[in-house]
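Components:
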Amino acid sequence: MNNKIVKTLSAIAVMVAAVSGCSNAPAGLEITDGWVRVSEFSDHKGGMTGAFATITNNTDKDVTLVGGSSEIAGMTEIHEVLMLDGEMKMQAKEGGIVIPAGESVTLEPGGLHVMLMGLKTALLGGEEVTINLDFEGAKDMTVTWPAKTSLAGDEEYKPAE
Amino acid sequence: MSKLSRRGFLVGASASTGALVGASAGAMVGASLATDAASSAAQTAVLAKSEPYVGVHQNGIELELQTFTNFVALEIKNSTDKNAMLRWMSLIAGDIARLTQGDPVIADAQPQLALGPARLTVTVGFGPNLFSKLGLEGKRPASLKELPAFKVDGLKAEFSGGDVLLHVSADDPIVLSHAVRRLIADSTEFASVRWSQQGFSNAQGVTPNGVSQRNLMGQVDGTDNPALGSEDFANTVWIEDGPDWIRGGTLMVFRRIAMHLNTWDKLGRQAKEEVIGRKLDNGAPLGGHSERDVPDFNAVGPSGLKVIPEFAHIRRASPQAPGQRFFRRPFNYEVGVAADGTPDVGLLWTAYQRDIEKQYLPVQRRLDQFDLLSQWTTPVGSAVFAIPAGVAEGEIIGAKLFS
Ligand code: HEM
Ligand SMILES: [Cu+2]
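Structure:
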C-alpha cells in the first residue's frame, strides 16, 4: 500500500518532467507524453493494453524501437494497427518502429504502440508503469509512464500466424 | 504535440510573410504588416493570459472573475479508497499543470481544442461526506458540515451536495469545455458526476479590473468584499492553522440562488434600491454618492425612517460582530425561458472563508430571519467543500490528506 503511494507520487514527477519538456533520454533520443492505456481490456489479470509516447530522434542516424519488457506484463511487443478484412486489427510490426534521423514518431491509440500482454494484475488509472524499451541504433531506455483511461484504441488483436 | 505543430505552423506563416515583404520591398507594407501583427496579438490577448497552477493557495479564488465557469460535483464510487483518491488526484494534478498553460493533457482525445490558457483555473474541493466515506473524520475541518435547512430554501438534490468539486473557469467557452471534458474523462474511473452547473460573468474588455460587475437583477454586486491581494483577504479566506493539508486552503459555501425577475421587474427603481440599500446607477449606498462610500446605517431621512431601511439586504448582511465576513465570488447563470417568459436565471453564489460556522452562518441566519430580497430570490442548490492548500510543482492535490 505504502509502496503504491510512493509509486503514484513518482508518477507525478514523471508527468511534470513531461510537462516542462525535460528529456529523460540519453543519446539524443527524447521521449515525451508517455502513457499507458486503462480500458476494459486491462482491468483484469491476463489482460492487455497499449503504451504510447512521442519519440524524437535528435541524432543523425535512424533509430528503431524493436521491442521491450515490463514487470507488469508477461509479453511486450511493438505493434501496428491495420485495416484487415474491413476491420481495424493490430499485429506485431515487422522490423519494429523506425524513427528517422531528426524526426519524431508518435505512438497513439489506433496506430503504432507498445503492446503489453498477459498483464499480471489489473491496471489502475493513476498508477505508474515502468517499461524497458529496446532500441537499435540507440541505447535501450527505461521509462515510467502514468496509466490513464482512453476511449480510443479498442482494436482487435490478431496474433501473428 | 499539437501545440508544437501549431507553433510550427505560425513560424511557417510568418516566414513566408517575411519573404513577401522582401519581394515588395516597401516600407509601407512592412509597417502595415507590423500593425497587423500587433492587432492580431491584441485580438488574441484574452487567450494568451495564463494563471499559475502552483502556489501556496489553489487558484480560481483570489482573482478577477473569469468569463465562463463550470462547477462539477462528483460522488466517489464504493471502490474508491484513499489510495484511489491519490491516483485520481495525481491524474488531475497532471491535467491542471497542462491545461492551465494551454497545453493538451496526456492522452488527450481532442488536443486541437487546447487553444491556449485563457486564464483557465481548476479548483479542487472535498465535501463533508468524502471524509466519512474514507474514514477521515478526524481530519475534517470542524465547520465543514452540510448547511442547516433555512426557511428560504427550495433546494433540489440535482443542484446540491457532492464528494469532490472540480471548479473550472476560463475566459473562453471552448477552452473551458475542453478542460472540463478532459478532467471528467480522468475522473470516471473513480467517481460519477453528481451535477454540473455553468455560469458566466462579463466578457473580457467590458469591466475594468477592480470595478464590481452587475448581476442579472441589475445591481452592482461585490462592493463590500475583501480586496484581492490584501491582508484583509488573507485573514478572511486563507486558513492558517488546523490539519496540515488545509493550511493555505479555505472553506467554500456554494449556493445556486434563483432570481424571480418577472416579479422583481414589477418594482420601481426606488423600491429596488431600498431592497438592497444601494443605488442602481452606481452601487453607492443610499445616502452616499459613490460605490466605495461607507454605508451610514444610522442615517435617518426627513420622514423619520432609516435611509437604509431595516429590511435592506446590506443592513441585514453586514457584519454585526467582528469576523462575520467572507469573500463572495458570484457568477450568473441563465438556463432558458419558460413559455410565459419567466427566465431561469440567478447566481452561482460562492463564499470563501476560514470557518463556515463563525463567518458565513451568522449572516445566512440573519438573512433567513428577515431580508426583503428573499421575496425575489430562492436558494435552489447548496453544497460545501474544503479547498485544500495549493501544490508545489509535482505535488498531488490533497496528498497530505489521503496519505
Ligand atoms: C440572489 C441572491 C443575492 C443577491 C442578488 C445579492 C446581491 C447583493 C448586492 C447587490 C449587494 C451590495 C453590493 C455588495 O456589497 O456586494 C450585496 C451585498 C452583500 N451580500 Fe448579497 N446577494 C445575494 C445573496 C446573498 C447571500 C445568500 C448572502 C449571505 C448569506 C449575501 C451576503 C452579502 C453580504 C455579506 C454583502 C455585503 C454587505 C455589507 O455591505 O457589509 N448575499 N448582495
Ligand atoms: Cu497491440
